[in-house]
Amino acid sequence: MSDVRSERARYRRIMRFAMRHIALVWWFELLLPRIGLAGVAERGRSARLQRLARRFHALAIELGGLMIKVGQFMSSRLDVLPPEITRELEGLQDEAPAVPFPLIRELAERELGMPLERAFASLAEQPVAAASLGQAHRAGLSPLDTADTGLTDAVVKVQRPGIEAIVDVDLAALRRVAGWLSRVPVIANRVDMPALVEEFAETSLQEIDYLHEAANAERFAQAFADDLRVRVPEIVWERTTRRVLTLEDVSAIKINDLDGLRAAGIDPGEVASQFAAVMFDQVFTHGFFHADPHPGNLFVTPLMGGADASGPAGARWQLTFVDFGMMGEVPASTRAGLRRTLIAAAARDGKGLVAGMRELGALLPSAEEAALERAMARAFERFGGMGFAELRQVDERDFRAFAAEFGDVLRSMPFQLPEHFLLVIRAVSLTSGLCSSLDPDFNVWDSVEPYAAQLLREESGNVVIDIAQRAISTTSLIAHLPTRIDDVLTRIEEGRLAVAVPKVERKLARLERAARRVVSAILFSGLLVAGVLLLSWNPVLGIVLMAVSAVPLLHAVLAGVLGRRGPG
Q: What pLDDT score does 430 carry?
């Protein structure tokens, strides 16, 4: 009964937080701009968003469970969330207080169907790591399992007791909030919130299924079976269930332990180069990749015997990956979309970029593709005509400014990246950051260029094929011209054709400001008269209405003054 009460309290806590901040967003982002006070809303917008993100950060740490994952998920949604929110949440770490060992023992014994003393030769009570969904303990395998697997040392991951119920509560709250937001046109036209939540739910439910993680580890190992640069822990299937995962203990030098690497005679710069190559092989060659390559999930394992070891010729170490709960997959359609987008970017072709985005499934139905094409052309104009070699010479500050500008373009458009593509961005971003910490001179372009060139070769082949493709494209344009003309005529008939004429737009803007002032004046008069009439019957309500009438009055006066000063 107490668990049910706790779950209800958790649900109410999440919903109260959501309702409060949705109301604030509605007031500042929707209502104030509607009555002509967009400037007022805009002035404190950055600080307001930062406060919202900080409050969610604190809530996530306090509640744990799926809320920390929600924060991490939000920090990667650069396509739909402003940088004030994503920056504040990107440092959210998945750490939680350890569950008392008796509770871990109880769950593990129930799952394995036997006492821990029979399942393992030993199991450390102190966890190696504790996170929001589960925690890990070092163990020694029983003689029987050692004979079967050839392993002696293992790590046992055990799900946090009651986490499935907490995940269900959190997802129910998120779905409810998404339903509310989907009824707000200004949000629904830009972001498919229910779809976003379902993508997150699917990933989260997979992450608490340790059988799924074990299968991921085996698939990853199979992909790199012939690649001696990479090591993957073996799964002890006899001691693995949906809530308990037992795998080989592969602990070694943490990839970001620079002193440890140098003490072992390993050059961190070489580690950076090899790690980047392995990660991009996963994304571009295998299409199945580790989507959470942070330092806690990566080790550098020295090989005994140097050049004679079972590693690459002359190599003395391997990269060891752990934790396969968050994996990404690049479907064939996404590879085609990536290829098309990359070619369009190389050609600075705005129309081709939009076509590639459509193929990636990144455009919502409400997208105005003509406006998006123009926006993309402007975003890429700064680096137009540059090859990869030239891009490497561009000042990092220019790239940062470009990224901010490009992010603004994306967030202003009805643009929403699919979850699998966001995982690609997350993996590449973490890879770049980790490599830069290992080698300050690391340049991600050096690692990306071979794969980009390969994609371009696969798509365009040679000059003859490229010319043929352009000819086909031109023929297709001519063939579809009657349909496009008919579409334009239909838009004119339905009044949906948007034509940009600066002088007309300025006149319309003045008329719109005047209309808003009239509305504000009428609203002021109505509230003032109502307040006076109610004063004798209900003094409190009358005074409130008279006080509130000052807001539309202020807008009517200020809008007139500012309008005369503004451009005409």
A: 83
